[in-house]
Design goal:
The chain is an alpha+beta fold. It has five helices and twelve strands. The chain has a five-stranded mixed sheet with strand order 2-1-5-3-4, covered by helices on one side. A five-stranded antiparallel sheet has the order 11-8-7-6-12. The protein has a two-stranded antiparallel sheet with strand order 9-10.
């Protein structure tokens, strides 16, 4: 009994401590790439069967593998070189690493280059006929571009909003005083300096010159000048945020001081 225990303690096949006792968690590495993966394997596998499973992990043919076993501290424990021996007959334990040395002549990184994998391409006519495709799914439920009524409704709503915006913009005269109200901000007094479409965003925009330096620019956006004002006094807002009226500039009272 003592001799049998000693035989399983060293590298190489023998009556190892995990013989027929279940499974072991191993780190798998390969000479063909720098990747490592963690896998659990039955200790009842023969080394030949173990190589077949490793073939799915590292890509090397099982017949062209040499296996090295390393301990958790990366010390070499030996080679798994007997195809008939059980994995558990070697001193494998959780955290050990099995390094696969490829002898097939493959180049390093060969199995990582997916550009060399032949891609399957389906003809458009064949895809159109498939009943279980995403296209068929969307068509059956009239979603996305297959919802003709919904698409037309959205187009009509967009055109209506644009028409309303254009009407609001047309009612804002240049040079008029106004009050600007933006969501989440206090109202600001300003002068209307520009009304129309812009290069930076679609739709109608109103360029205003605030009475105070509460803006974002000097009337120039994206390299195009729309109006003149001091830096930080200019801003663009949507027509619905602008109310024209008799809003005189605030008197700071400096003229009353001597």
């Amino acid at each position: 009994m003592k001799a049998a225990a000693e035989a399983g303690a060293g590298p190489g096949p023998g009556l190892g401590p995990l013989l027929g006792t279940g499974s072991v968690s191993l780190v798998v590495s390969s000479s063909l790439n720098a990747f490592r993966t963690h896998k659990r394997y039955s200790t009842g596998l023969t080394i030949a069967e173990f190589k077949c499973k490793l073939e799915l992990v590292v890509g090397s043919p099982a017949s062209c593998m040499d296996l090295e076993l390393y301990g958790a501290e990366e010390q070499l424990l030996g080679r798994l070189d007997c195809d008939e021996a059980l994995l558990g007959s070697y001193p494998v334990a959780d955290g050990c690493r099995v390094h696969v040395i490829d002898r097939s002549g493959a180049r390093i990184g060969e199995y990582e280059d997916v550009s060399r994998v032949e891609k399957y391409e389906m003809a458009e006519s064949d895809y159109e006929k498939r009943p279980e495709s995403l296209r068929s799914f969307l068509r059956q439920r009239r979603w996305g571009r297959y919802d003709a009524e919904g698409t037309q409704r959205r187009v009509d709503e967009q055109q209506q909003r644009q028409a309303q915006e254009a009407a609001l913009a047309a009612a804002l005269p240049l040079g008029a005083r106004c009050q600007v109200r933006l969501p989440g901000q206090p109202s600001k007094l300003a002068t209307i300096m520009y009304v129309g479409q812009t290069d930076f965003k679609p739709g109608y925009w109103v360029g205003v010159r605030y009475d105070e330096p509460l803006g974002k620019h000097d009337g120039s956006v994206g390299g195009r000048r729309y109006f003149e004002c001091q830096p930080k006094y200019g801003a663009f807002v949507k027509p619905q945020s602008v109310t024209p009226g008799d809003f005189p500039e605030e008197d700071d009272g400096l003229e009353d001081e001597l």
